[in-house]
Amino acid sequence: MGLPEGLVQVASDFAEVEGQDKLRLLLEFADELPDLPDDLAESAMEPVPECQSPLFLHVDADDRQRVRLYFSAPPEAPTTRGFASIWAAGLDGQPADVILGVPEDFAASLGLAALISPLRLRGMSAMLTRIKRRLRSP
């Protein structure tokens, strides 16, 4: 099973740009992070402490064929918001088994390692790990 189309598009977008343009693209994603629905309480969201900035996520897996993902990150944390937005764009609405099949090292494929600290990149991977953990739990 390959990557979901949304992540294929994200990877393609990052492959088409070099250097600082990759950072600009990440910031564009940060601006596109969907707002939380009004009925989702912050208390229902799980923190991702591996992220350098405060990030919270909620995985709604009641319908395993259409998993919904919600993220909350402050505007003053554009890198973290960008990572969350990439996951939202690439994974929201996908079946659980497709999300579980996403490689753990997908973040490395975006070519951001030379531009962003390893600690920040680990935050992006930690988001995926927590999403998968939630999908694996009963």
From TrEMBL:
<dbReference type="Pfam" id="PF02657">
    <property type="entry name" value="SufE"/>
</dbReference>
<protein>
    <submittedName>
        <fullName>SufE family protein</fullName>
    </submittedName>
</protein>
<dbReference type="InterPro" id="IPR003808">
    <property type="entry name" value="Fe-S_metab-assoc_dom"/>
</dbReference>
<feature type="domain" description="Fe-S metabolism associated">
    <location>
        <begin position="13"/>
        <end position="133"/>
    </location>
</feature>
<comment type="similarity">
    <text>Belongs to the SufE family.</text>
</comment>
